[in-house]
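Exercise 7. Given the encoded structure of a 143-residue chain, write a plausible sequence.
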């Protein structure tokens, strides 16, 4: 009986945490997930929709891409994510700007390179345009 009671408390705590998120925090979480899926699938249409025209996308190597080069890199498999797992995500929103931090672990299969893994810290900057959140900036760093 104690096990069920503890399980019920844990479930209630998780529901409370989810419900504690604001509408914009839920929208940002959804946008981050849409971006993750679009990157793994190299989905040009989805990437075009979620990325701002003025994107600055920083890699842990120091390479910086704009929207066109970021999308081209994924769709041509120059940067090919087999899978991406995100963890330890935090969201901070001020007005129409959101700062998201998380850890990214993934398997890669970039054209011309040996398949590998990445383990990165990521900071994303999202801006709200109308009712949509757009990826405006990204910086990765090695952990």
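Solution.
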């Amino acid at each position: 009986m104690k096990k069920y009671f503890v399980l019920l408390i844990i479930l209630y705590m998780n529901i409370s945490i989810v419900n504690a998120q604001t509408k914009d925090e839920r929208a940002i979480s959804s946008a981050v997930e849409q971006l993750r899926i679009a990157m793994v699938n190299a989905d040009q249409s989805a990437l075009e929709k979620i990325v701002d025209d003025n994107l600055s996308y920083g890699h842990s190597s120091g390479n910086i891409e704009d929207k066109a080069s970021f999308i081209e890199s994924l769709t041509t498999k120059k940067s090919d994510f087999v899978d991406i797992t995100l963890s330890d995500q935090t969201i901070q929103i001020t007005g129409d700007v959101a700062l998201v931090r998380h850890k990214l672990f993934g398997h890669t299969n970039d054209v011309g390179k040996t398949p590998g893994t990445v383990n990165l810290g990521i900071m994303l900057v999202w801006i709200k345009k109308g009712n949509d959140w757009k990826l405006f900036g990204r910086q990765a760093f090695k952990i």
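Remark. Residues 39 and 45 are 11 Å apart (CA to CA). Students should compare their own answers with the one above.
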